[in-house]
Amino acid sequence: MKITTLKKLxxxxxxxxxLATGIATGGKAYAAQDCDNNAIIYCGAxxxxxFVSKVKANDKGDLxxxxxxxxxxxxxxxxxxxxxxxxxAYKDGRxxxxxxxxxTNAWSIGREKNGKSYKWDVNINGKTYYGSKNSDVFxxxxxxxxxxxxxxxxxxxxxxxxxxxxITGDKIKPNxxxxxxxxxxxxxxxxxxxxxxxxxxxxxASVSKVVYEFGDGTSRTVTSLSTPVEYTYSKPxxxxxxxxxxxxxxxxxxxxxxxxxxxTTVTVPQPPKTPETPKTPETPKTPETPxxxxxxxxxxxxSPDCGVCPANPELLKNAADCGKGETPxxxxxxxxxxxxxxxxxxxxxxxxxxxLYLRRKLMA
Length: 364
Hints:
Layout: H1 2-21, E1 23-25, E2 28-30, H2 48-57, H3 63-69, H4 77-83, E3 85-90, E4 95-97, E5 100-110, E6 120-124, E7 127-133, H5 134-137, E8 142-149, E9 155-160, E10 167-171, E11 175-185, E12 192-202, E13 206-213, E14 219-222, E15 229-232, E16 237-249, E17 253-257, E18 263-268, H6 336-363
Antiparallel strand pairs: 1-2, 3-4, 3-8, 4-5, 5-7, 5-10, 6-7, 8-9, 11-12, 12-15, 13-14, 13-16, 16-17, 16-18
Helix pairs in contact: 2-4
């Protein structure tokens, strides 16, 4: 009987030791359920969903008040159930999620003083609980923890899985900023600019991508701050180019950031006007050479002064002596003598016509 009682006491003591200590295996922390009076939730919760179910059940009557005091309001229970991440609380005071430290100098509360482990009183809604640092109450190196983040990637609320005890500390807020967008004209390329961005991300924040918008409806995305981007504007005008930095935060949160320093004005000038090609002047038409008088080359052919003098064929028509001794237009009829005279006149006219022919031939 005594042996059986001793065995039961030994097993109980061993279980309590395991529950209080936790087990670290393969780099991951595991903890048995803490089913004692110090636990805020008797036997704890192994998942965010189970945690929320037990809080709503509220078998102790004080669970909503305790967790709201540590940052989890009833309206956020569903958010905790769907978004809380599993992490590890370490004895040295760190709380780590996905390899990133999200809090330091961590401490938690319990329902009992636990002897010398107890450090200070914590009053919540008229009831007293007992606070202690991880280094004072953790017998092992680490205990699993459930962590919910706000939209800045900062730890909002956390609870130990083994006992449901809320845990907090110096929360690390991720830092991220867009500091400067720089543009540089590219030599030898018209209306082409090279853009680079200066940004910072720390305390668990990291740059996931950089999006350049050129102000003309066109954008380009790169995944590294060290990658410059070249862009050629196709039309003249004034454009506002800007850059947005996308960051990844703890708890699978994401954030975007830009600033007034991360935009710049780009002025694309009007192209120089191409001078118009002068019209080739029309070649002036060569005036037609007017016909000249056959008898006097200085006169046009249709001049009234062109020709020989009717009274004296040896003279030109415009000669000063042309009007003297004009030949009558009608010869008188004087019989045989007139015939002889007519013959002589005809001979004279033939001679004159022959001379005129020779003269024209010489003038031609």
